[in-house]
Amino acid sequence: MNVLTTRRFTFSAAHRYWRPEWSAERNQATFGKCTNLYGHGHNYELFVTVAGPVDPLTGMVMNVTDLKRLVNTVLDEFDHKHLNEDTPYFRELVPTTENIVQVLWRLIGPQLPEGVQLHKLRLYENADLYAEYTGALTSFSRRYEFAAAHRLHSPGLSDAENRAIYGKCNNANGHGHNYQLEVSIGGAVDPASGMVIDLVAMDAQVAAVLAEFDHKHLDRQVADFQTMPSTAENILVVLWQRLHSAFGPQLQHLRLWETANNVFDYPA
Asked: Of the four, 41, 63, 120, 264, which is 20 to 30 A from 159 by CA?
């Protein structure tokens, strides 16, 4: 049986989104500020996950010192570089997060020792945006926030039962959270734009859904919670239904933070 081992790496780089065969207007409409002539930059975080059996002698899937050396050798080509200008990989390819993570997959995978497979790469451009690649599927994830009040109260339970189950969360006037929602979209990377999905369109569709929840009292102002308690689990399922109507089968996964300590995923 295989065990997964993950190590975090960082590198700093500049890049620019631009298709020379497109007009300036089309580039601007597609890539926005990322078309800046001289580029912009990020502190990237890369999580490398490898899979393999545990060696009975060392007790390891792979020595993380070896993994660190191998990956850092690859990242030397990217760190403190302008990806368009200083690497050979993005002369024709737009250096989007989706494209970068696929290039890194091709560079890292063949260098792993026999018996160890590259399982997954996750590349963060910033804390709220990352791309993930498994060798088959590319996904793009972005985090959003909405602020809402709610009260945990089930109409099918007595007042005493609600107080016993929900405690302080049953306060009659409600309480609230800064919810954070991570939306993951999967699919093929468009060869021209280098994106799984148009980010501007994605932001607009998610914003339209969250407008119904943001700065609202969920139980009093969102119809779904008139008949069921506004638990994070129920909120997440309702959000899935709304967003699935917008994105269809491209919608892969949702993660909802109610607080830093309480996190919910759908589908499980």
From this structure: 264
Query: Catalytic: which of 40, 80, 215, 244?
Result: 80
User: Token digits for 164?
Assistant: 């016993």
In terms of residues, how long is the chain? 268
Q: What angle do CA 86, 14, 6 make, to 5 degrees?
A: 95
Q: Please, which pLDDT band fits residue 268 given cuts at 50, 70 and 90?
A: confident
State which amino acid sits at residue 49: T
Catalytic site includes residue 80: yes
In this prediction the pTM is 0.92
User: Do residues 266 and 236 touch, judged by C-beta distance below 8 A?
Assistant: yes
pLDDT digits 0-9 by tens, 204-240: 999 999 999 999 999 999 999 999 999 999 999 999 9
- Cα separation, 208 vs 148, in Å, equals 15
Q: Is 244 a catalytic residue?
A: no
150: Cβ contacts below 8 Å, ≥ 6 apart:
174, 175, 176, 177, 217, 218, 219, 225, 230
Active-site residue, selected from the candidate residues 15, 21, 25, 34: 34
**267: cis peptide before it, omega within 30°?**
yes
Instruction: Determine whether 161 is an active site residue.
Output: no
Domains of the chain: 1-136 (3.30.479.10), 142-268 (3.30.479.10)
Catalytic residue of the set 125, 132, 182, 258: 125
Q: Where does 184-231 have alpha helices with state H?
A: 199-210, 218-221
